[in-house]
Each structure stands twice: as C-alpha cells, then as structure tokens.
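U., I forgot to send this yesterday:
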Amino acid sequence: METKTILVVEDEVPQLKLLTRILNDAGYRVVGAKDGLEARDIYRRQDKEIDLVLSDMALPKFGGWTVYLMLKEINPEVKTILASGYLDPKVKTELVAGGVKDFIAKPYVPETILQSVKQALSGT
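Result:
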C-alpha cells in the first residue's frame, strides 16, 4: 500500500505534534506547517506529493479557509479538511459546499481524525 502524505497546518506546536503522532502511527507521512504562508509555500513546491491537507481554521498569516482557496488555485483538486474549536453549523455547511472535504471539531479526537482522513482520501 502506498503511503499517503498529509500536510498538517497548525500553529500550536503541541497540537501539531499530536496530529503528527496520530497520523504517523496510522501509517501516514506528515509534512508540518506552522501558518498559512508556510503551508502555501510547501504546497507550491510539493503539491504532487501531498494527498491531503489538514488545516486549523485560526492561523497566523492566512486562516484555514484562505489557505484552502490559495491551494485550490495551485491544484483545483486539492483535498482539504479544516478544524476549529467552534464553527457555526451554517458556516460548516458553506465550507463543505465550497469544496472542503470535511470539518473536524477541536479538541482533536484520534478516531475522528483518522475516520475523516480515510474518507477524504477514499473520496467517500
């Protein structure tokens, strides 16, 4: 089975480490970015190798939705999951309608993350 690569965009170091551990333990390769600008730059260089983007909504230098829109300009087929501590259900519906694969509520729950990642990667 081919190892899938996930770009994780999270400005809180403990959260980035947690997500990296969860995803690595499940067999995924993780590339980390601390803000939206770094995520855009990494994706610009590695878009062919990155299978999925998992991004926090509240980031310095561009929020998660803006990051998604920038990455979509690079690759219209970019698969993205957004995460936040709170998001109005109406906004969540709008994000998914705008092309985001899923939305994960914080705090991160490993089973929820892995289920969402698996579904986004499989296209279901």
